[in-house]
């Protein structure tokens, strides 16, 4: 699967000028509110025509302004999931799901009804009406309906934004299954680092209508960027579960830089996992600390210091090939006399497991 997107469009005072390609999996369009994510996904969907540009899926041009070509939305055979589930209130869940089938092209390979119901865990909801579903359940049904249209591409615009944290946590594993168990490529719009860190293979960072950065999730999310919410910024690392200590409820995950101990869920040894370390939860020490309750202390070399106007500094460490970010005050940075090339010890307070 190859998707090529190039678009220039003037929208009032806003100018969208963005391009990216996707090779399948989940491609996240990530950026702050107003950066142009929805405008770009509307162009991919065929809901809007760019002033200049093209959308090409597997060699087939769907939008090609130079040639005056524009395939309308309903003939693109894409699936859509929006922030609000938009189910038909007068139809049961089953009828809502079956509705999608009407729009599936006759010869489409398609997911079977039973498989989609199973994938999304909605079997017990089939005879209910949408009014009797929670927000998370409605959204799972909306995803099911989109899947049953046998889409060539699934476009998801902030599908979790309207849900509270508990509902988000409930639905994320289903999105992971969707990514891992179907071959449908997904373009996923979000401004949440946690969601993108968990789901995306590739990340396109949008800023002021343009593409600020594009690349594998693990690389992009570990970079300092103005597009990231300060509270959420941090490093994303890839590791393998080594062991689980049932007595202490602690998993050990092997990274390039060593091992991290992660409290909570029992993880299966051998399983690849993604780990996110928020930069504000990483303290630095110039000597290996002793007598500290923190379980995770990693040695690294300072690669880069990026001071901010608010009196803090983001420090990027190279820890044996893994990048770890730390945000500390400019005063601490001065007192410790931190400079590029120095060896330091990162004291990690929290580690979030993303998959
Ligand atoms: N039809 C339009 N006319 C004028 N301005 C527009 C139009 N559509 C979008 N804009 C402007 O373009 C900018 C980008 O909007 P867009 O909805 O693409 O951003 P976004 O990144 O999806 O934001 P959010 O995360 O808040 O949904 C905004 O400043 C918006 O006001």
UniProtKB/TrEMBL annotation:
Domain Mop: 291-355
PROSITE patterns: ABC_TRANSPORTER_1 (PS00211), ABC_TRANSPORTER_2 (PS50893), MOP (PS51866)
Keyword Cell membrane: yes
UniProt keywords, alphabetically: ATP-binding, Cell inner membrane, Cell membrane, Membrane, Molybdenum, Nucleotide-binding, Translocase, Transport
Top-level taxonomic group: Bacteria
InterPro entries linked: AAA+_ATPase, ABC_transporter-like_ATP-bd, ABC_transporter-like_CS, Mo/tungstate-bd_C_term_dom, ModC_ABC_ATP-bd, Molybdenum_import_ModC, Mop_domain, P-loop_NTPase
SUPFAM superfamilies named in the record: MOP-like, P-loop containing nucleoside triphosphate hydrolases
One term of GO molecular function: ATP binding
Keyword Cell inner membrane: yes
Domain ABC transporter residues, every copy: 1-233
NCBIfam families tied to this protein: modC_ABC
Family note: Belongs to the ABC transporter superfamily.
Protein name: Molybdate transport system ATP-binding protein
Organism in which the protein naturally occurs: Rhizobium binae
